[in-house]
Amino acid sequence: MPHVLIIDDEDDIREVASLSLETTADWKITTASSGAEGIRKALAEQPDAILMDVMMPGMDGPTTFRELAKDPATASIPVILLTAKVQGVDQRRFADLGVAAVLFKPFDPLTLAQQIADTLGWKID
């Protein structure tokens, strides 16, 4: 069973994404409400993937991603960014970071698991 860490400062987004992935794909979900908490949980729990918001107070998604990439213990965990920014320049900037994918808010809870699975080459039973 894949384990996904969701990092987002918005309680509603964490809750909807968690329920979506648990019910549609039966994945194990861990959540964090900040970049710093997400890094701690990624180190401790070694998830199979991270779904992370771009805009967060304190440490934003791109900064959190760069911190994860610096540590050999978390560098190989694929990161998918979740953003409301759909401008081409933003998309290119995120893609240049080296993330696995960029998904857009608002996302469809019924297809979120499939989007993640398609990105990472996972099968959903």
From TrEMBL:
CDD domains, alphabetized = REC_RR468-like
Q: Which Gene3D superfamilies match?
A: 3.40.50.2300
Pfam families, A to Z: Response_reg
One biological process term in Gene Ontology:
phosphorelay signal transduction system
The UniProt keyword set, sorted, is:
Phosphoprotein
Superkingdom, taxonomy of origin: Bacteria
Q: Which residues form the Response regulatory domain?
A: 3-120
Modified residues annotated as 4-aspartylphosphate in this record: D53
Protein name as annotated = Response regulator receiver protein
Q: Which source organism?
A: Terriglobus saanensis (strain ATCC BAA-1853 / DSM 23119 / SP1PR4)
